[in-house]
Every structure is written in C-alpha cells, then in structure tokens.
Amino acid sequence: MAYNLLKGKRGIIFGALDEKSMAWQIALKCFEEGATFTLSNAPIALRMGKINELSAACGNAVVIGADATSLEDLENVFTNSMEILGGKIDFVLHSIGMSPNVRKNIPYTETNYDNFLKTVDISALSFHKVMQSAMKLDALNEWASVVGLSYIAAQRTFPGYNDMSDAKALLESIARSFGFQYGFKKKVRVNTVSQSPTKTTAGSGVAGFDAFYHYAEKLSPLGNASAEECADYVVTLFSDLTRKVTMQNLFHDGGFSFTGVSTELVEQMMLNK
C-alpha cells in the first residue's frame, strides 16, 4: 500500500545493481511513494547489472554513471540530476560498498593495504564525498535526507566481514560528523541504517554469509529484515515524518542488535552437546 510519503520529492539513488540489492528495492518503493529520482552507479556496475530494467520500472528514471570516489563525477551527478528533475534534491541514498580483500579472500590479519585503502575510499569516504559535493553545489533542499546503508559489524566482530567492518565504522562516524555540519548549515538530516544480513549479490560474497544469515534469523525476535522491508523503513527516513532524526545509526534488524541469546539457540546448543 502506498501512502504518497514522497510525493513531489526529488532524489538520487546510488548503488542499485540488480533486483537483489537494497538500493533496487528502495528505488521501487520511492517511486511507489511518489518520488522522482535519478539512478547512479559505477560504469562497471552499469555494465554488469540490470539498472536499465530498474529505470523502466521507475518511470524511465535517468541513469547517470559515476565513480563515487571521484569528486568530478559526483558533482556531475548532482548538477545533471537537478537539471533533469527540475530543482534541488530532497533525498540521497548511499548504497555503495566493496572490498578487494574480501573479493580476493585475503584474511584480515594479512590485509593488503592498497586494497584496504580502496575499501575505505569506496565504502566510506565516498559517503563524505557525496555530501561534500552536494554542499559545494548547494544541491540539497532544507530538510533533505541523506541515508547510508551499514551493518552491525561496525560495532561487533564478524570475522568474515573483514575490512568492511572498519569501513562501516567510518561510514557511521561520517554520518555523525557531517550530519552535525549539514544540520546547522541547511537543516539536512544524515543517518545510517544498520540492516539485517540480507541476501544481496554483494552480501553473499562475504565468507560465512549463510551462517551469519541463519544465526541472525534464529536470534532476532522478529526475524531478519528483508530488502523490501528495508525499503519501507528508508522511505520513512526520506519523508517529512522524520524531520528531527539525524546523526543516528538506526538498527533495522528484527531486534538482533539488542538480543543476547534466544531460547531457540539455547535449545539447539543443548541438543548438540
């Protein structure tokens, strides 16, 4: 059911790759709620993914290729988006993350530091660069909302998550630091959403992901949140209903983040003794 929560709002959605990605589901939900927006991803992702299908499903949303680590590319995204959409931007989704160390199965204790710097640049500093570019161009309306997608490995150790844990911790710190500055300057809200382990193309590449997923499902009182449910939540953060929410890391994980142990897990461990 649609509520027209984003009627008349203009946005930019970074990171949609295919129908498994959270950014893809968020784009569909934003369109359903009345928003218009542009879509952006790295050129290689545009070639590998299905973003043109998403564009067609979202009223032929314009796709703008960009390397999110490039300030020049990001400024081009904001400039073109304002021209295409007919005004300043009301919401931005940052759903960008990649680790060469994870992809190459390099253990955390044997980190390749050139790869590590790429992980941080792509997965965290790009969040800062997105907002720096928007601020420089005065591209966001007052009370605009910027959301980055995170994971609880920023606070707790999940060995297979590797250097992405460090990148997510920095991402959340950037949300607080930039959110403070942008709030005073333009009343812009900046938050991160810490989502349940979700069966995305990127997530499935993390070592031990299936174990993460099933463990969280058994521990969470409400079960894991799906990508579609994440989209519902993010839409509320883009809407005017959350105008005073900023600088927060918001857990959207069925209660996993605040549960010590579940009865189901205890019983299973007792059976396996």
Task: Supply the key terms.
273 residues; alpha/beta; 10 helices; Rossmann fold; 15% strand; globular; single chain
What does this entry show, briefly?
The chain is of the alpha/beta class. 45% of the residues lie in helices and 15% in strands. The relative contact order is 0.14.
Number of strands: 7
Shape: globular
- Class computed from helices, strands and strand pairing: alpha/beta
Oligomeric state of the chains present here:
single chain
Look at the structure and name the CATH superfamily. Answer: NAD(P)-binding Rossmann-like Domain
Fold and architecture overview:
By secondary structure, this protein is an alpha/beta fold. The chain has a single domain, classed as 3-Layer(aba) Sandwich (Rossmann fold), CATH 3.40.50.720. 45% of the residues lie in helices and 15% in strands. The protein contains ten helices and seven strands. A seven-stranded parallel beta sheet has the order 3-2-1-4-5-6-7, with helices on both faces. Helix 7 (164-186) links the parallel strand 5 (140-150) and strand 6 (189-195). Helix 1 packs across helix 9, helix 4 runs parallel beside helix 6 and helix 6 packs parallel to helix 7. It is globular, with a radius of gyration of 18 Å. The termini are far apart. The model has no long low-confidence stretch (mean pLDDT 94).
